[in-house]
Design brief:
It is a single chain. The protein is an alpha/beta fold and about 260 residues long. It has one domain: NAD(P)-binding Rossmann-like Domain (Rossmann fold, 3-Layer(aba) Sandwich). The chain contains eight helices and seven strands; from the N terminus they run βαβαβαβαβαβαααβ. A seven-stranded parallel sheet has the order 3-2-1-4-5-6-7, with helices on both faces. The mean pLDDT is about 95.
Length: about 260
């Protein structure tokens, strides 16, 4: 057997690798782009808001911005084709794009709203994973990281959001299934399940003191997450540091799912 690398931090590097990040125009996605660039990756930024990702790409060496609506199959095909043509392939895929319909009771959620959330949060992740895995197999390795949610593991109550919970639950199990299908091909598939962090989606909740008291009361660590507290989970799952890990969902939730 080969000797272990004497530098335990080397496994977290992504030098020379290409990482595609969806939902990269703000929040988690923009942070992920900066973090992966910092460890040597060339990032491909995908989002609908072209101006935002082009501005971010200008800050990051070698970054490429591709305007993309992940709910459109043809946009996803163009995204991966562009990464292959311009960057040589895909080594890492971060399925981060996501929306929610809520909070909204199921009886008030239209079928169109339910389908739209699934299209963005689940169907797009499936299509992009398949497309990226084809490139990864050619390169002999690859890592797919799905950004799920604690509400892919537990109900959203008291926040009513049936579509979001269904989509994230599907994403957690899709992670397991694809991991098992592609393990022998060198493609690893894992997920991160964040709890409550300040993003555009949670802006209303974070602006409401009653909601924040509820959050602090119900989180064992007594506070919401800080966006940089996702860095370690992202780097671990995206890099060779987790080379013997596939099919897992890593909760970054302040103890929420341990209750």
């Amino acid at each position: 057997m080969p000797e272990p690398d004497p530098d335990p931090l080397r496994g977290f590097r992504l030098d020379g690798r290409v990482a595609v990040i969806t939902g990269a125009s703000g929040g988690f996605g923009a942070r992920f782009a900066r973090v992966l660039t910092a460890v040597g990756a060339r990032v491909v930024l995908a989002a609908r808001r072209r101006e935002r990702i082009e501005a971010l790409a200008a800050e990051l060496p070698g970054a490429l911005a591709v305007a993309c609506d992940v709910a459109r199959a043809e946009d996803n095909e163009r995204l991966i084709a562009t990464a292959r043509a311009r960057c040589g392939g895909v080594d890492v895929l971060i399925n981060n794009a996501g929306i929610t319909e809520g909070p909204k009771p199921a009886r008030e959620t239209t079928l169109a709203e339910f389908q739209q959330v699934l299209a963005v949060d689940l169907v797009a992740a499936f299509q992009l994973s398949v497309l990226a895995a084809n490139s990864m197999r050619e390169r002999g390795r690859g890592s797919i990281v799905n950004v799920a949610s604690i509400h892919g593991l537990v109900a959203g109550a008291p926040n009513a959001q049936a579509a979001y919970v269904a989509a994230k639950g599907g994403l957690v199990n899709l992670t397991r299934e694809l991991a098992c299908q592609w393990a022998r091909e060198g493609v690893r598939v894992n997920a991160i399940a964040p709890a409550y962090f300040a993003t555009e989606i949670t802006a209303g909740m974070f602006a409401d003191e009653r909601s924040m008291r509820w959050l602090r009361r119900n989180t064992p660590l007594g506070r919401p997450g800080r966006i940089e507290e996702l860095d370690g989970a992202l780097l671990y799952l995206a890099s060779d540091a987790s080379s013997y890990v596939t099919g897992t969902t890593l909760c970054v939730d302040g103890g929420w799912t341990a209750r």
